[in-house]
Queue: 2 jobs
Job 1
Amino acid sequence: MEWEIFTLEDERLKIFGQEISSDIGRRILALLKERLMSPNDLAKELGLPITTVIFHIDKLQSAGLIRPVAKMAGKRGQKTLYTIASSVFIIMTSSEERDKIYEALRTIRAAPKEILVRSAIIGLLIGILILFPWYLFTTNLYSKQVPGLSPTNLAQNATEPLIKGMRYPNESIAEAGSYEDQWNPLLFLILGISASIASAIMTPLIIARKSRKSENS
């Protein structure tokens, strides 16, 4: 969202008042808020002579209410497309506080972005807090229930379970299988990652939605 601030000392304020009080000026602003349009497009849409539309466009542009944004090739040469210069117009009694008002408005505009970043970081931290206890928990149980199969020793002892299984097939396989059914570490891993992703995605979306509602209101 952009803001345009007028003060009582601003020479544009008189033209601003003239165009806002004009039905044609308001209709032009309403159309340019919806999409980019050229003077010819506006004349056709409003059913007015092109000279009348150009007169009001010059007034609106000199008041800082609209601005040209692009030029396109038309049937009779290039045509200029216009849009509104700002979605919010503020009138103040003095220019002394203008800088403070601009700074306050910038802060309001930047706040949602900072909140989104912080909420995403919080979501990732939640996932880490869930995954770290899972790592300690599963490492400890693996080392107690099935020696040599802890996550930190899998690479070093890759052949040990095979040898142990060959010597004691029924005991080792049954023991490892019962443990895996009771404490499936993959389930904890999936829950941790899912919680992290959900927190990192949903929280910013909720805050962004509330921010858009507050801006529209």
Note: The first helix runs from residue 12 to 21.
Job 2
Amino acid sequence: DYVSGSGVARIFETISGKKKSALDIALLAQSGDVNALKTWEEFGKHLAVAVSWSINLIDPEIIILGGSIAKAFQFFSVSLEKHLRKQICPVPAKKTKVVNSKLGENAGFICIFR
């Protein structure tokens, strides 16, 4: 479980040796905490693996990330995009967009639309 709040907390604990919630880690990232920023970068890598499988199997036009984790999209979006494009097939890589949900926590974690 690497692509959830508990996954973020586990990554942060590995990097910093401290236990914090995903919300606390997002707040730390907002204040520029290096360990929190590294955590979200690593989270983006893990999420890229999960999302790449969906893209390669389904070939959607758009992936919409939602739920409470998506509130931290600004901290992992660059890492997600960078690692995602390396892991998906060439055709979907050119057309599939990954965006943050405007519905926030009510959207579920990942919705795939075709």
Note: The domain at 5-113 is CATH 3.30.420.40 (Nucleotidyltransferase; domain 5).
